[in-house]
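pasting for the record
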Amino acid sequence: MNLLDLSIVVPCYNEEEVIDELYRRLTAVCRSLGQSYELVFVDDGSKDRTWPMLESLAAADRFVVAVSLSRNHGHQLALTAGLEICQGERILIIDADLQDPPELLPAMLDRMDTGLDVVYGQRRRRDGETAFKRGTAALFYRLITGLSEVPIPPDTGDFRLMSRRALNVLLAMPERHRFIRGMVPWIGFPQAAIPYDRHCRYAGTSKFPLRKMVRFALDAITAFSTKPLVLASWFGAGTALVTFLLAAYSLASWAVGNPVSGWMVLIIVIALFSSTQLLALGILGEYMGRMYEQTKNRPLFIVKNLLRWEPSPTLDHSTDFRHVASAEFPGAVAQQSDW
């Protein structure tokens, strides 16, 4: 496979209001670089007109690769699908909402030219987000930094530029519950931040409600730390200590002729034991549930359609391109498939 200079991978879910502006800005940046490139859009089971719009772009522009997944797999797996399909020597990951500016790409390329394998955007400011969103995001990054054995840069998302060798290592990691912004630092290789101001969403609404944010945080913590299991052990030890002290107090009171009366202490002890057991079981269940899903070894994603221009099979080895329309994948496409 002849690698292009640059691939830009964009996972999309119900982004019909953004697609045209996103395509315009990405194309303008790529053309200004004077390098070979491709724009890989991955439709993650959208319910609006996102896929028909991507089909039209792929039919009109040979630099566009449009991918449609069989259903909604989630942001991280849709992103993984695009990373598996892309053919660039350098790969930019960017979300479709245009909160991360594509115009930062030239500066990121310049930083990578100094010998880096990963250049990630680090947010100085987050415009258009509520105080609750900013506060919970700050709390999450501090929490995951404290729990993880791998240093995860704070205030970063998936917006980053990667080399092909860093991407190849990332694609060799088979986790189903993926936390890519933590997996990339785990890889190693020279990495550096480039600060920027995150903009308001160009149009539409966020596709990450509180429920998904909590699930994403759990995926991150369970993927990069076993400290919650240790915490459960400490809770158990603490409960045992409290129980021992209460028992000693009860015996001492009985010995001096002033026994503890009523059922309140008993109820408190039972409630304390029960809550600690349920907490420990819940933490253990989160880890075991992920292990169970991983052992089923199902493919990470399934591609329904792939639209891409390919070299014409002519005898004169011309560089003309033809459009591969509705390339159907009846079976599952695993992470390490040979494209």
